[in-house]
Amino acid sequence: MIPRYARPAMTALWEPETRLRIWFEIEAHALDAMAELGTVPKAAAERVWAWWATKPEIDVAAIDAIEAVTRHDVIAFLTWVAEQVGPEARFLHQGMTSSDVLDTCLAVQLKRAADLLIADLDELLAVLKRRAHEHKLTPTIGRSHGIHAEPVTFGLKLAQAYAEFSRNRARLAAARDDVATCAISGAVGTFANIDPRVEAHVAAVMGLKVEPVSTQVIPRDRHAMFFATLGVIASSIERLAIEVRHLQRTEVLEAEEYFSPGQKGSSAMPHKRNPVLTENLTGLARMVRSAVTPALENVALWHERDISHSSVERYIGPDATITLDFALARLTSVVDKLLVYPERMQRNLDRMGGLVHSQRVLLALTQAGATREQAYALVQRNAMKVWEADGQLSLLDLLKADPEVTALLSPARIEAEFDLDYHLKHVDTIFARVFGD
Q1: pTM beyond cutoff 0.85
Q2: Annotated catalytic residue within 144, 145, 267, 271
Q3: pLDDT surpasses 90 at 74
């Protein structure tokens, strides 16, 4: 992943030294279990841990040099460890196969990555909740198909995002638990040369569950669900980012990204204030979602195992989690600093001459005795005059001047149907559903 879209904690999780340290822990904990079972000398396990207690630096370059000859990463690592530890290292990896180390390590990394992403989601949710309550009763226009529909509040827009990201948090927590399994079952997963109790011990100390049937590799449906969940979260990020981008358009300008002192919007046009952060989030979301299809295709491996998934996961593991971590942090900052313009929201609400109240008049006419078709035609013919005049006419005035409408509704009753607060009467109910307060 390029540094521009990466944060230190998530990046460190995927560094080669981190991966090799996890490999060592898996091997050493397995050795502990074998020593307890009496299949290897306890002195071997003690020697291995004694070396580890010296806090050795993992010489990634030296291991890479060995791998250049062996063409096998796990063998290269074990060879290097043996050079450091001495003869007792020969008991490492007894009855194990490379996938036991690689798959269990990946499970640890994905679990830790999920923990960081869940923390990111918690920070985003806190900001969304605060801003939603801040604008709980800030009226704005709701749009369908990009066209004015009926009034909502800006707080409701943010409450919707809060509810969506709450669901995403639950999905990610479930995907985290599902992918966090340990496989120490040996060649083709039969435990022929290693006791299942070794696997149970490694799983316990590494904070994982035992994989019921590993077939030498952990089944990739678990990973597919994990990356699919990341893709859904990315889509939710893009949904909120696009909302901000639309609201920042010059013709709308109901909200915009914070524009910092000294910031420049265009190399050519000094007046520009572009939604660059949310446009960036749209692009980052595409990159996270690009990991989903390869993860799904990794499910179908040959027989008990092959390594067609391996190269894919070396890309998508770091790239998807690092990118999503960055995107969530960026979105949190965007929402936290978002500039909101209630006066512009009100102007846009009023821009189309009261058309946003058309449904209320339609319903009032049906309650007064008109058929729905008659009521629709009466309201629409007046509404279209306002539409074609670009809001320079008043729907209220036209309706009050329409004798077919006033034959059913008094002017006072028509005016009552143009009450903005009527549309906001259930905001508290929705907030209680979303936030539980």
Answers
A1: yes
A2: 145
A3: yes
